[in-house]
Amino acid sequence: MVTKSTISTPRPPNITPLPAAKPKLLDQVRNAIRLRHYSLRTERAYVDWTRRYILFHNKRHPKDMGADEIVAFLTHLAVERTVASSTQNQALAALVFLYKEVLGIDLPWLDGIERAKRPQRLPTVLTVRETGAVLEKLEGTLGLMARLLYGTGMRLMECVRLRVKDVDFPMRQITLRDGKGAKDRVTMLPALLADPLKAHLQRVRALHAADLAEGLGEVWLPDALALKYPKAAREWGWQYVFPARGLSVDPRSGQRRRHHLDEKSLQRAVKKAAREADISKPVSPHTFRHSFATHTLDAGYDIRTVQELLGHKDVNTTMIYTHVLNRGGKGVVSPLDRL
Fold first, then answer.
1. One fold for both 25-112 and 128-323?
2. Catalytic residue (choose from 51, 52, 271, 286)
3. CATH architecture assignment, domain 128-323
4. Has 76 been annotated as catalytic?
5. Pick the catalytic residue: 180, 234, 259, 272?
6. CB under 8 Å to 159, separation ≥6 — which residues?
7. Which residues form the Tyr recombinase domain (predicted)?
8. Which fold, 25-112?
9. C or N: which end of the chain has fewer Cβ atoms within 10 Å?
10. Catalytic residue among 30, 99, 150, 155
11. 95 with 70: CB under 8 angstroms?
């Protein structure tokens, strides 16, 4: 008699699990960039340069190429595509990142490749009268943003990424987070903009309340703050001062959120305003930063103070504005004017 206990259960065969598929090269680049908390702009630029480098060399794998191929690609950009030196240097930075951080190839010739020399040009600066003429042509939210750029000296992206919690009305100051070089700094809040900015934030808060009522209202948080403080993404203080009109899908997380206003809309508006004001100089939002620095120095403030307000690491960077003060060539009176 065969009992249940005497029946042997066959053992399952030893199955060796298949190794996980290795991510494709461009996905490896993305992962390496996100691991280092680089911006989405940097991610897109580096991935694009990696793709163009591979296609230029007929889809050869970068590990099978070296200095000669990089130089050939950069020469193609400079000679045939006639790109700017900054663009050429960005392409080189992307390839250095590819070899060192993604492929783990630390080759000494990477540091030996010469970077394109950037031309030393003086910044475009508007006079006080020209600045006022351009600002008069800008209204609404974009006009408020342009006045903030000129009134504080902040950069364009610092303005569009500004959070509600970083505007301090009682102290009349604005804290600019994670600026160039991943540095924070404090600048003034112009008294003339206090009331318009408060009125603007009331409208933004109503928009945020409507988003919350629909089960939305989250905003992107830097680094791991979203994991550390799960509720912070919905809090009023973390919202953008200048949010976008519509919702969008985060390309990294896939979440539907309200991002900040697209900086291109301000760039287009400023160029249009300059044309309408009959300003012949090339004007962009960054021109307001240059004008802020020059006009502040011209008002008698010391250069170290201006350096801190602008967030310059080296005072020599700030010194360039002493060459474009409203005094003519280096402040020297022409001998013709002495006759």
1. no
2. 286
3. Orthogonal Bundle (1.10)
4. no
5. 180
6. 145, 148, 149, 242, 266, 285
7. 121-334
8. DNA polymerase; domain 1 (1.10.150)
9. N
10. 155
11. yes
